[in-house]
Each structure stands twice: as C-alpha cells, then as structure tokens.
Amino acid sequence: xxxxxxxxxxxxxxxxxxxxxxxxxxxxxxxxxxxxxxxxxxxxxxxxxxxxxxxxxxxxxxxxxxxxxxxxxxxxxxxxxxxxxxxxxxxxxxxxxxxxxxxxxxxxxxxxxxxxxxxxxxxxxxxxxxxxxxxxxxxxxxxxxxxxxxxxxxxxxxxxxxxxxxxxxxxxxxxxxxxxxxxxxxxxxxxxxxxxxxxxxxxxxxxxxxxxxxxxxxxxx
Length: 221
Fold this sequence. Notes:
By secondary structure, the chain is of the alpha/beta class. The protein has one domain (2-204): TIM Barrel (Alpha-Beta Barrel), CATH 3.20.20. It has helices at 2-7, 22-32, 46-56, 70-79, 91-95, 110-118, 134-141, 161-165, 181-186, 189-204, and strands at 10-14, 36-40, 61-65, 84-85, 103-104, 106-107, 123-126, 149-153, 170-175. The strands form 2 sheets. It has a 7-stranded parallel sheet with strand order 3-2-1-9-8-7-6. It has a two-stranded parallel sheet with strand order 4-5. Helix 3 (46-56) links the parallel strand 2 and strand 3 (61-65). Helix 3 runs parallel beside helix 4 (70-79). The longest helix is centred in the C-terminal third of the chain and has 16 residues, at 189-204. It is globular. Residues 211-221 have low confidence and may be disordered.
C-alpha cells in the first residue's frame, strides 16, 4: 500500500450522487494527471460508481472510502474496489480485511497508530489531519513510530499539501478540493480537470501526470 500511495500522492476523495457521473469524473481527473480516486460510501451510488470506473476508465485506480464495517468491505470488493479506506480503525475492520485487497485504516491518536501497526498496517490514514495538529503532530510522532507512513486527509488543500508531502512519513494526501460538490452537480468536468492539473503541477512542476510504474495491488497491507 505504501508503494501504491507514493506512486499516487494526491487522492481525490469523491462523493458521487449519480453513478452516471463516475466515468466522466474519472476521465476528468485523468486529463488533469490524477490517476486515482477514492469513492466514498456515503451514497447509494458508490458501488455502481466504482463498477463504472473499473469498466470504462481502467487507467484510473479506484478505491472505496468511508468503509465502516466488514460487510461494507465485502460490498466494495464485489464492486471492484482496488483498495479500501476507513476513517477509523475498529478491531473488526483490522481483523477482517480481505486478504488480497489493500486497506488503509484511519487513525487519530498514537494509541490507534500503534494498534494498527500491531495488526500489520504500516500505511495509515491520518484523519482529520488539520484538526489533530497537522504537520506538527506528524513530525512529533515520526521517531517513535518508525516504519509507519500516512495518507493525511481532512483540511488538506492547495495551500498546505506540499508541506504534508514534504514529510518523510507522509506518502500521500487526500482531499476533495479538486472535486467540489458544486462542480460535480454542474458536471463541470473541464474545471475539475483544471483543478486536478493545478495540483499535479504544484507537486511535480512541469510533469503532466502522476502515473508511475505499475504497482502490484495484492500482497501485504
């Protein structure tokens, strides 16, 4: 999972109301150079949206977010999700992850980070990042939590994403600034492409895409 996220350091966190918007959205992200998306299970359209992206825009890696229960993990897996993300880390989630599907548990304290690490999860979602102390917190826990890396989500945007990605223990950041609900409702795919491209340019300079060498999605969490 660490390899996957370091290859795709900006993860759009997307809430889709209409599954028909999934493929156009994925194409818009790809045109901007972002080849990954986390579809949140906050709407009834989530599973169908994941299926649509896998079928119609296979170059974009698609994961399931807001995965709160083992049953939801199985639903996401059946829909074709290529990775799973949760806002928290319950014992049930940590113990029931599909063997061949990468999972990023959410953590908000050192104790939760230690528990997730003890279960073998060395890539964790630090959420809500800004509210919990942001980069200062992550710097402070880097030494005692050697080997643990984070995807920081919550309050991340153009103004601070580079400061997070500059930290050795941050592999990626997640956010919805490039996929705001207003643009989704308007089906303004061109503006979403523009915002995505701006994010890519911010961290990679003149590079046009975050595409890296292929990553094996199986194996350890």
